[in-house]
Amino acid sequence: MNRFKISYLYFFINSLLIFGQYKKDLIAPLDIPFSLSGTFGEPRATHFHLGLDIRTQGKEGLEVKSISSGSVSRIRISLSGYGKAIYIDHPDQTTSVYAHLQKFAPKIESYIKKFQYINESYTIQKFPKKDELLIEKGELIGFSGNTGGSSGPHLHFEIRERKSQKPINPLLYDLPVHDEQRPQLQKLFIFFHNKNHILPHIEAISLNKTNDSIYETARIETSGKIGLGIQMFDRQDLSYSRNGVYSTKVIVNGKLISHYEFDQLMIDESKKLYNVIDYKNYVQTRLKIFKLFYAEDIKLNFMNSLVEHGIFEIEFGKSYHILIEVEDFSGNKSIIETYIEGTKNTLKQAKLRGKLIKADEDYLYSSKNKEVYFPKNTFFDTVKIEIIENGDDIEIGPNLFPIANPYEIKFSLNEKDSLKRIQTFVAKKLKKSHKYLHTELNKNSLIAKVNELGTYTYVRDSLAPTIIPNNFKPKQWLSKFKFLSLKINDDFSGIKKYSGSINGEWVLFEYEPKKKMLTYDFSDKYFENVKHKLKLEVEDNVGNKKIYQTTFFRKYDLKD
Question: Which CATH class is domain 466-553?
Fold first, then answer.
């Protein structure tokens, strides 16, 4: 038995051992037909997707149920990311995760709200003790929503190995996802590797669909070391979303060169997305080219390449038969078949100006009033960076290289007015605006950590946030109201924090940044008086504050 067959057999047996123990009779988290807007391992703008995104028919408030019995191990409420999320540990050593919830089930809601009032904070994270919040299989745990970084109502659902917190593809658990559609392949790409691995030349190859599952290309003539990439997507029944695929294979002259399979991921691998998605094409055109090869030092958990990391050499005078198999989780498969003829190849490599920076080296750019510091391992590979000063701006680029770890920008600030100093921050210049960056003021320097190349400057924000009542008017009777809501906004540096009180007592205002809305639930507290004083203070990221005060009238019922 050859080395490939032994390796593949080992992988297959190991997969059965890992995942066979987890396949059990589970309750679906939602009682609706499953329509997916996101699949496991799907490449997003900044990360690999760690679960399934289940559409909720454009609605919020659908009942979300626990897939199995267990104990709540973590509750988190944040303004970005997963928003309102709950984590449940199960006896089979897995953890299920439910994110972007509108609210939790009553017993979980009352548990976490108690700590929100103790900490006087809407955003919070708690880790209940084992068996403190027991959950039955199929029990209501929350309601679907659109909180956090969600771009529309849906349920983000994950299953993880409890000990390692390694995400597992939830489709391995026989969830009710119907799919009879093959992956759609749009274009083939050839990556030619140069000596320094700086911006390899890329050629796009058109695909001709010969039947429902087979794509072909015209005969390709080239030579040298190459890797392959595909522009592609997959769809499931009941869904129009362009989702990620499950498995890819590259076979050259009958030999398996590269094999990806999204059964599991590591959470910390997300920052390595651009080792798989071509960064240059994505930032310039938003085109996602999925590379079917990888560098020696960045093999990721889903990669099972067996020969030279998916890179192979086309020799002059030789012919190569190429098969690329793309498969979804339901076994629907699409295939690219092509032939490459080894010929003389004269490629024009991209010429870049600037400083050559190796991934394992530090680099400091320093001038009279600006500094840029790239620590070791800022980049994934060797890059060429040009830094140009233009007045208060500093251009760092070109933005053709992904950042592995943040680098530092420093501006000298010659401002004696203490208020103006506090109000000044480092910003990224966009086409028509500025993007606030968290900035430290150290003596006469503004310092920011950044994770993208581009043009940066420093600006001042002297305007306080705005506060506008949304569902009431000052001195109004609100006895029949269940909620009190106000709109808050800061169109420059952004909202940093807020605090609200009624009759001098802190009350919990829930914040939804996408709607710019603060909401208070009248059932949270009982007040004896009829006349109530509302005070709300909102602060932006550079310390500008706005205080809104008014009175309203409300007779509280003990049932509230």
Answer: mainly beta
